[in-house]
C-alpha cells in the first residue's frame, strides 16, 4: 500500500513537469511548460518569459509529448519603446559594478543575488543590481534581456515600485498588456497618483480595453505632469476615437473588426471576416508564424480614412498596428479588396514576427508578392531603370517610403517586388521566414542576406538587374 502511494506521488510529479499543448482554433498548437487560465486569458511560460493569449483563440489544453514546440520569438513594439523611453530613468550609479565593458556582468549579478537572503541591506543591493541591469538593457534596446532582469528584481521584491514600473513598461513594449496590467494594478495600489503609473496604465488599457479608458488615464497623468510625448499620443488617439466611436465591433478568433455599421451591410462584414480568416491561414503557412494577439482591422469610408491617418494620397490602405482599409461604396468582397487585406495582413504578421525591425523594401516586397502581385505590369520600365543603373539602392529603401519623392514611390514598390520575386524564384519562398527570423534575432538586412542566402546586397542587386533585363529588356 505504501508503495502504491509513493508511485502515485511520482506520477503526479511527472504530470506536472510534462509539457502541455495549447490547441488553437486556427489549427496550430503551442507546446508549453506551464499553462494556466486567469479570466479571459490563457498564460504559459514561453522562451522569453510569461506569455498570454486571449482565451477565445484556444480550443483546449492537453498533455503533450514536448515535441514540435512553436518558436516564441519576442515581439517588440518599437514605436511604444520610443515613446516610453523618456520614462526610463537614466542609469542609477552602478556602485556594485553590474555593467562592465558595455554589457551586464551576469556572474557579478548572480553572486550579488546569491546573498540576497542574508539581510535587508543585501536584499536591497540585489534588487538595485537587477534594476541597473534592466535599465541598462532597456536603454540598449535589448528588451527581452531587460525584461528578464526586471522580473528577477520583482521576484526578490514583489512590491518594489521601480521594478513594477519597469517590468510593466517592458511587457507593454513586448505586446503583453495583460501582464503589464498585473504589475500596474499593484503599483497603482501603492502610488495612485503617480503620473508614471497612470501613463503606463493607459498603454495597457489601450491594448486591452480600447481608447476611451486609455484616454482617461493619460489625461489624468498629463494634468499631474504635462508631457509633450504623452500629449501627442493623446491627440492621435482622440482623433481616432471620434471616428471609431460610432463604429460597431465584431471579432473572430484572430481579428477584431470595426466598421461603420450603418453603411456596411452585415453580410458584407461577415464576408470580410471569413476572408480575413482564410488569408490568415495562408499567411501562417507562408511565413511559418502565428500572431499571438488578434489583429485589429478598421474599415473606413474614404474621407474618414484620410482624417485619421493624414497619410499621403498614394496610400490606398494603411497598417500602423491596425489594418485600416477604405471601403467606400463597396457592398461585397471582391478580388481587389481581398488582395489589399492580404497585403496589409502580411505587414501585421511581419510586424509581430520582427518587432517592427523588418526593412521596408522586404516588408513591401513580401506584402506585394504574397498578395499575388507580379512584375508583369511594371517589368519593362523597371528593366529600363536597371539597364541604365537609375534604380534606388535597396539599402536606401530600408526606411519608410513615406519620405520619398512622389515620383520615386512607384519605383520603390517595384524594386521591392522585384527583390522579393528574385529571392522566391532563385532561392525559394521557404527562405522568407528564415530571413525574417534572422532579422527578429537582431541581424541587419545585410547580415540576414549573408547568413540565410549567402548573398550580399550587391549580389542581390545584380541578380535583380540581370533577371529584369533578360525578361523585360528591349
Ligand atoms: Zn504595404
Core attributes:
Serine Threonine Protein Phosphatase 5, Tetratricopeptide repeat; Glutaredoxin; 19 helices; alpha+beta; 474 residues; single chain; SH3 type barrels; binds zinc ion; disordered N terminus
Distance between the termini: 89 Å
CATH C-level class of the largest domain is Mainly Alpha
**CATH architecture of the largest domain, please?**
Alpha Horseshoe
Extended strand count: 13
**Order of strands, widest sheet:** 9-10-11-13-12
The tally of structural domains comes to: 4
Q: Specify the overall morphology.
A: globular
- On the 0 to 100 scale, the average pLDDT is 80
Bound molecules: zinc ion
Q: Oligomeric form of this entry?
A: single chain
Strand proportion: 5-15%
What about the largest sheet?
5 strands, mixed
The CATH topology of the largest domain turns out to be Serine Threonine Protein Phosphatase 5, Tetratricopeptide repeat
Unreliable stretches (pLDDT < 50, length at least 5) are 1-18, 65-73, 310-314
Number of continuous helical runs: 19
- How helical, in percent, are the residues? 55-70%
Helix/strand/pairing category: alpha+beta
Taking Cα atoms only, what radius of gyration do you get, to the nearest Å? 25 Å
CATH homologous superfamily label of the largest domain: Tetratricopeptide repeat domain
Explain this structure to me?
- With 474 residues, the chain is of the alpha+beta class.
- It has four domains: 2-63, Roll (SH3 type barrels); 78-244, Serine Threonine Protein Phosphatase 5, Tetratricopeptide repeat; 246-354, Collagenase ColT, N-terminal domain (Glutaredoxin, 3-Layer(aba) Sandwich), CATH 3.40.30; 357-474, no CATH class.
- Helix content is 56%, strand content 12%.
- It has 19 helices and 13 strands.
- It has helices at 2-17, 78-84, 106-114, 120-139, 143-156, 161-173, 177-190, 195-209, 211-224, 228-244, 266-287, 302-309, 335-354, 360-370, 379-387, 406-427, 431-440, 445-453, 457-472, and strands spanning 20-24, 29-32, 35-38, 41-46, 49-54, 58-63, 99-100, 103-104, 248-251, 255-259, 295-300, 318-319, 323-326.
- The strands form four sheets. A five-stranded mixed beta sheet has the order 9-10-11-13-12. It has a three-stranded antiparallel beta sheet with strand order 2-1-6, with no helix packed on it. The chain has a three-stranded antiparallel beta sheet with strand order 3-4-5, with no helix packed on it.
- Helix 4 runs parallel beside helix 6 (161-173), helix 7 (177-190) runs antiparallel to helix 8 (195-209) and helix 9 runs antiparallel to helix 10 (228-244).
- The longest helix has 22 residues, at 266-287.
- The chain is globular.
- The termini are far apart.
- The model is unreliable at 1-18, 65-73 and 310-314 (pLDDT under 50).
- The structure holds zinc ion.
